[in-house]
Amino acid sequence: MINYDLNKIKTFIFDVDGVLSRQTISLSLDGDPLRTTNVRDGYAINLAMKNGFGIAIITGGNSPSVKVRYEALGVKHIYLKSKIKMLDFRDYIEKTGYKHEEIVYIGDDIPDYEVMQLVGLPVAPADAAPEIKQIAKYISKKKGGEGVVRDVIEQVLKVQGKWLNGEAFGW
Questions:
Q1: Helices 148-159 and 39-50, axial angle in degrees (round to 10)
Q2: Whole-model pTM above 0.90?
Q3: pLDDT higher than threshold 80 for residue 170
Q4: Which strands form 54-58's sheet, in the order they lie side by side?
């Protein structure tokens, strides 16, 4: 159970590798990463958006498949090739007007550290780096790519009475 006032939450921000996909990836013959995605994470993201939540993805990776996947779910704020995640985080805040206490950020490794220190609810997957677990207010029992996103979104939507509403029963 998350120890934070989940009624404050209005937006979710996710890293990709180690959060939306597993820490390990296969490589194509061209050297491009082949990421996995969790279907239930995708469903939860879509349901959160239908219920008025903001969603953003900030990743250092540059795979076109990531953009295609999350745009298909309706995500409008996708930051690829993020060298310094703080810059993209600030851009998202400027564009949307969210306050830090309204934000969940799920990250798993050192590039996520600075942003996680600023948000209201920093979350780590079970297999996150020790430094990230130290600053997380919630450490999911789920590993990256294995349902951590669904875990957090589900808890927030349940507290806010938006889990099994009319939006829940379709794509």
A1: 30
A2: yes
A3: no
A4: 77-79, 54-58, 11-14, 103-106, 121-124, 138-139
Cβ atoms of residues 153 and 45 within 8 Å: yes
How far lies 110's CA from each of 18, 82, 132, 152, in Å?
A: 12, 13, 7, 21
Average pLDDT across the chain, whole number? 92
CA distance 79 to 91: 10
∠ CA 127-111-132 to the nearest 5 degrees? Answer: 40
- Residue 164 CA to residue 150 CA, distance in Å, equals 14
- Summarize pLDDT for 26-39 with one digit per residue, the tens: 656 676 766 678 88
What single string gives the DSSP state of each residue in 108-147?
Answer: -SGGGHHHHHHSSEEEE-TT--HHHHHH-SEE-SSPTTTT
CA dist 112 and 88 (Å) reads 11
Specify whether the backbone of 28 is left (phi greater than 0), alpha (psi in -120 to 50) or beta: beta
pLDDT average, residue stretch 121-141: 98
Three-class secondary structure of residue 24 per DSSP:
coil
The pLDDT score that the predictor gives to residue 133 is 98
H helices of 2-104, in order, are: 39-50, 64-72, 85-96
